[in-house]
């Protein structure tokens, strides 16, 4: 029996060339490929963001924390989650219909360690008809999942998508 590992999830391709508000349905799910979070990622993100919190940058300090080692920045993991999502075939089928992002709500239920490999599972959580003839709201739940099957980041992205026949 073969099982899927975090670095090579079973991707579920969307059946239509392009999805829009009308063709998406609650529960639709797709996955990204995997990516390993590296020491270089943490160092670069510290420099870019100016966040040199010792839990990310100081090995000796991190040993004294409940994690026992340095962890990746939550916002770094959120950024990787976003990037992996946009590279997935499922997202590419939706992308032409995206008008804007309305809102994002996120949480980090577990730490991401340097060396963890994560992939993203995206699920259509909710569709709302806004009453506009050309667009509606869709909430996508994006979960970053590590090689141990643990959700390390969960973000709900509320997006505006075009409806069938709407002009870009």
What keywords describe this structure?
MaoC-like dehydratase, Thiol Ester Dehydrase, Chain A, 5 helices, disordered N terminus, 6-stranded antiparallel beta sheet, elongated, HotDog_dom_sf, 6 strands, 168 residues, alpha+beta, MaoC-like_dom, single chain, MCH/BMMD
Written overview of the protein:
This protein has a domain of 99 residues: Thiol Ester Dehydrase, Chain A, CATH 3.10.129. The chain contains five helices and six strands. Strand 5 and strand 6 form a beta hairpin. The N terminus is likely disordered.
Task: Give a brief rundown of this model.
This protein has 168 residues and is an alpha+beta fold. Helix content is 24%, strand content 30%.
């Amino acid at each position: 029996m073969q099982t899927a590992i975090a670095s090579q999830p079973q991707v579920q391709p969307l059946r239509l060339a392009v999805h829009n508000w009308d063709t998406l349905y609650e529960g639709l799910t797709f996955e990204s490929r995997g990516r390993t979070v590296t020491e270089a990622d943490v160092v670069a993100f510290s420099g870019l963001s100016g966040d040199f919190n010792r839990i990310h940058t100081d090995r000796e300090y991190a040993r004294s924390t409940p994690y026992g080692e340095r962890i990746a920045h939550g916002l770094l993991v959120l950024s990787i989650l976003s990037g992996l999502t946009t590279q997935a075939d499922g997202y590419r089928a939706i992308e032409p219909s995206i008008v804007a992002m309305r809102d994002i709500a996120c949480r980090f239920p577990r730490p991401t360690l340097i060396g963890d490999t994560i992939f993203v599972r995206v699920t259509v959580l909710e569709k709302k008809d806004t009453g506009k003839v050309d667009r509606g709201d869709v909430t996508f739940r994006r979960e970053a999942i590590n090689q141990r099957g643990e959700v390390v980041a969960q973000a709900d992205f509320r997006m505006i998508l075009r409806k069938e026949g709407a002009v870009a």
